[in-house]
């Protein structure tokens, strides 16, 4: 029920806030519809009642005392206070109130409730009736952080709750203190003209219904001080609850200066003097009644025509624009007349001499007293020079990029001064935060790094646990004070690469396991046979059994080598760039190459004593060679089972490292050489390959500044691949550490505690150390370990297994460190996860012999 305006002392129904009218005794005499919805009472229910009907019981006395003050004419009414009201449904509502005195009483202006308070809230007290500042309402920490970290005017509309959060910059534009403020929708309505408010409401409704992609309009406001400003408002829904729009986020830009320029030009009769004072800009006027067009002198210069011979007309003026721009410019003019709204755009023309000129144009409609459009007045400016600067910056930033990606030009004060979006994102907001989902903290960190080093590049970076992945480049141009952000969403390609990496490694593992199992069985056969021979010879009384013991040890060493190579291969390769000796890496992995190849293929390595280091992901280096070698084997099998594969290395005349992979297979036809690195291209027989391997090799090589070349037929008859890496040539090979001898252990008199769930290993370590003069104690379980620690005997060193049935190596180390804080800790393990970066103690791999144990203790002592 709305209030009856005949009963009210002033027309309060037009006020966009909750308003209650009182007489001098504090009796309610009227209210508007906003107050009815706010309190839950209709006018008939509260009219004639004291204002205390809307107050909780415990606040009544405090308010009566306050009312006595303002009845005596106290100046307390001039302030704005936070108060707690009681709705008809007995709900406590927190709001702000301002009281104004009128001829027949008072008017109380209430801000809508922004915070529901439960009846048992113990924090409410009579201090709610003391004066407070209206800007002190609570902001969410997240929004507060965003709005105060970016020096732009932003706002956030909670559609469900009907509240608007204004940044400090917006509040300053409206004429208030530059502090963030949370208020109802009606707060800004008093600053807008009715027609502008109607346009804003229409666009908001159309955007919520999905009819338009965003809110984007220009309107005028009246500030708190009565000044007029012109603003461009942009808004876009950023959050949904179910299918309903929940939050809208937007920005505000003050274009008063540009608009005032147009206004001055309209007000002054001498257009020419003001236009000529502008730098490479002129003004124009379209008379919509007479359909005539006026140009200032500067516009003739920009278009390259003589004002004595050329008369501008609407149609002929459009002919100066590039063909693809003409329809767009015509639409700007037609929409301005139809919607009675100004416009702004950038475009390009060709002047009379055929020179391309980049221009910007701002137009404002002229209305008669009846509200009809009678003309359009505007400013036209040559921006070729400034746009050329941005294009140069853009080209500079696009170095090493082969595809078009979004580019943002943001100045030192975080204002977007220019942006270039791809066609796929052309409908999106130009706000950087709408494209890449990083935080303000990340944004500021990237700015600091780019400013410090000039340019910052990050590949495969994610801010949401790899739901989306980006390649990001930030370049700082100090002369212009511009940050150039280049952002490419590579999520889809990243996922494909990860899946293909897994697929390739599984395929290689399938080829590897058959040969590895054969080798392990051979090793076990040798060890088992030698052990049985030991039993027979010992039973026969033979004492010289050292030959058979050596056979067992050799078999175990071979088995250890097989498992180490297999573990190294199955681990995910690191993408960390490191310096390493590639030739030594090939030699160390030659066993793996041989395991993958048929026994009928002659595999050779010829390094020509090359000694150098390269900077490359070490795990990927061997994978690339494995891929090429397996391709060579497939090429040989196209001819038969017998063939030859050779890996060789040399330094070229530029002192770069060249690694060659040659084979005697079928080779590659000349017409196919340009296709071999294309994804999904394969010349192999059906079911022999999917064409992904060489594409991944090519991508990995070039991503890390290497090169790959291919010849269809090399010196062995088949294909010849050449990998080229920048390298650092070493004059002499790295000197390997000398092998430690038994006398270097030097641990005599030390006390060592040993823990291993394999008691035979614990006994072996204990026996060896006892033989070196070390005092030891060993166990294979947690209970005995705790019992040993409970004794008073001290220990200098603790050697522990990493994985035990009843305790982990980490837990065991913590128990021992608690008793002996200064004890040295070593560990032994058959396997430790590569990703376990928290283990800070040296690890000796199982199995090991006495020499390896001694070297390990010496190197880490």
TrEMBL record:
User: Which InterPro entries does the entry mention?
Assistant: CheY-like_superfamily, HATPase_C_sf, HATPase_dom, His_kinase_dom, HisK_dim/P_dom, HisK_dim/P_sf, PAS, PAS-like_dom_sf
Residues bearing 4-aspartylphosphate are: 801
Top-rank lineage group of the source organism: Bacteria
- What EC identifiers does the entry list? 2.7.13.3
Leading EC class:
transferase
Which GO MF terms does the UniProt record name?
phosphorelay sensor kinase activity
Domain named Response regulatory is located at 751-861
Record field: catalytic activity: ATP + protein L-histidine = ADP + protein N-phospho-L-histidine
Biological process (GO) annotations held by this record are: regulation of DNA-templated transcription
Keywords (A to Z) from UniProt: Kinase, Phosphoprotein, Transferase
Protein name in UniProt: histidine kinase
**To which species is this protein native?**
Colwellia hornerae
Lineage, highest ranks first: Bacteria, Pseudomonadati, Pseudomonadota, Gammaproteobacteria, Alteromonadales
